[in-house]
């Protein structure tokens, strides 16, 4: 790892990265760990089972609800105080669920808990980019991507295991205690990047928050073709994986009659492939330009999706489906962190605001696209899923081509 861009000791660097990693892990785990207990939650709170999916959907809604505001506020008041506020809010809302007695209060707390994810995206990600050089920042973002992608696999399994000894109320209390420990880690180790002098003599100036000015800045980002194409591409590239996370229980457990354990085991090749892609990225990043790295990643990315498309016409068995998804996932792991970095610096505006907009656009694309794929019947059988997921993923080539062309780098080598 190269020397940080600001004056910070190796000990503080390690503590800062560790605290950020655990905060992201907690925010993602909080969305998945509670799902196995949701029928018990609705029973204890005398609520209808129709509230079960709200636990996840409202959490995601909270994740994007205030990103547009959190980012610009961190540009003025600094990354450190805003992330401490976000972590504290997350910890308190998790602990508050211990004593909740109404399903509507529970649902409201899920929205507040989900806001923690918004703070991770809009505040901690820009802070990492401002502390480290390009190569190190991309490596750390790839590591955080692994944390996010492992959560859908480990969260429900860990939640089911803990619920053997804990009630759902105690599980939320445990998350709150974890949030408090992370808050202490951030308080002790997180540096401030806004207004801090760098080793090159430059200083990242604070940007005063002003309503009309913020609206104009967001409008300018939407009018920036390079930024918009990169942000949309980020969301579309992840669509096959998002669709798989949402529909795998239906495809494997409901349709194929597999047990939850077998379902979990079939997830391992897909998510391990993402991690492998991130490891390849870490290997190449020191000697490879980011646009060129994305071009390399398109080989496994498109190869896996084309195999997925072919399987939809010739019969998509579970091993074949998983194999094609794994090849695609290698390309996704290689490209995701690199494309995020390029999107973040495709605008000269403050990075808190830019990061917030990237998060809102990419999450909206993933959420909306995933819902459309599910509504179109991709969960009916393997062939339908393979067809729709492959087409959705390959659609990223258009915005990606536009972005790389405007970067004066063609899509093909």
From TrEMBL:
Primary site of residence: membrane
Topology of the protein relative to the lipid bilayer: Multi-pass membrane protein
Family matches, as InterPro entries: MFS, MFS_dom, MFS_trans_sf, Sugar_transporter_CS
Cellular localisation: Membrane
Entry-linked SUPFAM superfamilies: MFS general substrate transporter (SSF103473)
Annotated transmembrane regions: 12-31, 51-70, 82-105, 111-128, 140-159, 171-189, 227-251, 263-281, 293-314, 320-340, 352-378, 384-404
Highest taxon in the source lineage: Bacteria
Keyword Transport included in the entry's annotation: yes
Protein name: MFS transporter, DHA1 family, multidrug/chloramphenicol efflux transport protein
Record has Transport as a keyword: yes
Keywords: Membrane, Transmembrane, Transmembrane helix, Transport
Origin organism lineage: Bacteria, Pseudomonadati, Pseudomonadota, Gammaproteobacteria, Pseudomonadales
Domain Major facilitator superfamily (MFS) profile residue range list: 16-413
Organism: Pseudomonas mandelii
